[in-house]
Design goal:
Number of helices: 5
Order of helices and strands: HHHHH
Distance between the termini: 11 Å
Helix content: over 70%
Radius of gyration: 12 Å
Number of strands: 0
Strand content: under 5%
């Protein structure tokens, strides 16, 4: 995993957050980035958040397990805040 790939995902999630975590073009962009890096923990975590946003908790939970994470009890916005802080440390 390159830092530029990770930065690309973080930036794409930032645009998705600015769009209110709604389904659409920004969601699709993040999802495609995560799919392209399947098997890499940060991207599997991002994939989980994508499916949480989509409302597919069963699918999200699969990706959380792959990432070694658990679905956060708070909102998507709160989870993104925690995720962003953790991923930013890797950049």
């Amino acid at each position: 995993m390159s830092k530029s790939d990770l930065a690309q995902m973080v930036e794409a999630f930032g645009r998705l957050a600015a769009a209110g975590f709604t389904m659409g073009t920004e969601w699709q962009a993040v999802h495609e980035i995560c799919q392209a890096h399947e098997g890499e923990t940060p991207f599997d975590w991002g994939h989980a958040l994508c499916h949480r946003i989509e409302g597919e908790d069963w699918n999200a939970d699969y990706w959380y397990r792959r990432a070694g994470k658990k679905r956060a009890a708070g909102t998507v916005t709160e989870e993104w805040s925690v995720m962003k802080a953790e991923l930013s440390e890797q950049l």
